[in-house]
Amino acid sequence: MATQVTSRLDERTREIVKATVPVLAEHGEAITTHFYKRMLTERPELKNYFNMTHQKDGKQPRALANAVYAAASHIDDLSAIAPAAETIAEKHVSLNIRPEHYPIIGEYLLKAIKEVLGDAVDEEVIDAWELAYGEIADLFISIEDEKYKASAWTGYRLFTIHKKVKESEEITSFYLKPEDGGSLPSYRPGQYIGIKADIPDYPHTQRRQYSLSDAPGKDYLRISVKREGGTEEIPAGLVSTWLHDQVQEGDVVPISAPAGDFYLNESTSRPVVLLSGGVGLTPLMSMYKKTRDERDVYFIHAARNGGVHGLKEEMDGEQTYVVYETPSEEDKTLAAYDKAGYVDLDWLRNVVPKEADFYFCGPEGFMRAMNGALHEWGIPDEQVNYEFFGPKGTL
Q1: Residues identified as active-site
Q2: CATH assignment of the domain containing 206
Q3: pLDDT of 232 higher than 60
Q4: Annotated binding site for NADP(+)
């Protein structure tokens, strides 16, 4: 959806903001890191909304720095950042971010700009950025308002864990049914739901998004969750470990409505090529199961070995291919894979058509490799689609 944005800022304000672009390029991440640190210290209740793992590993400050830089660069016409704003707004709606949160963010962002840059900014710059932030916030609030209106439900709805199935050494599926016995919404294959987790002995509510891993139209929603590793300093697996170890069949969890702008384009009849790495197969499995009887679909999945390959029995079509980086002896005995090593362009050219819509998801390294291969092959940008798990990044 194209969003037209007419700036209400006067020319002087826009010129001041644009003049800060080089400074943001150099100091943006320092500003956003300081912003999060101070805000979450002084307003600890906001930790109920933020993924603290992404704070500690730097992904969230980096993503925000990129967003602020983009907004400043395009302050004359924020229509240029509307596509990125749409993606962020989907996540905000899943997290139940509301208009009243934006003034808090603005307050601490302006403080961070002033405190990090010090004498390099004066009151005129801060005043200009206050006005610019208000315009940027209004853009997000407007987009999110439309998404809330279109959402199947607002906030969180209680779901019962109907079934819990171990899919591999790392991945477990959870089948969710509404506790109220009501109907389920349809959704677009590739979208996600949010889980609100109140974990015993952990002080803050955790909110995570997990891709729906089955086709729409069932009497359940299914997510397939990888148990993430982590350390005491960066507990990457806090929610996934809770789901694997503590959540059992019959338990009730709050779920946000399906959301997300990575989904199957059903308006074209081109063949579909699905490229997944690791647990990145989950949104693509939903696409595969929805469209395999309707269009020509190729599904390529890359994993370390068969032991960690979840949902493998559901990759049952003739045009599915498995690539194991280091196949086990059992994998070799069973001939359970089509290629050892990695998915590369030379091999890809031989198994899938070029005139297709390509969708890929997985670890960042896998995604960079796929993006590079597809562009080297000359696949048009409009036929290349991908999903990041976590804060939006760039390839």
Answers
A1: 102, 144
A2: 2.40.30.10
A3: no
A4: 278-283
